[in-house]
Predict the 3D structure of the following.
Amino acid sequence: MEAIRKRLGVMDTTAFSLCLDNKLPIVVFNLYNKGNIRRVLSGERVGTLITSR
């Protein structure tokens, strides 16, 4: 909720709310760093993990 309240713009607010409401974790990472998508999908710790409490 802090990201929405502060309007950080990490992703669409509606999508963010839906993920939180359905307890889906979100990984925020730099899409432009080569290999990051593969690393995230492989389960490596990249970026910030956001979960509902």
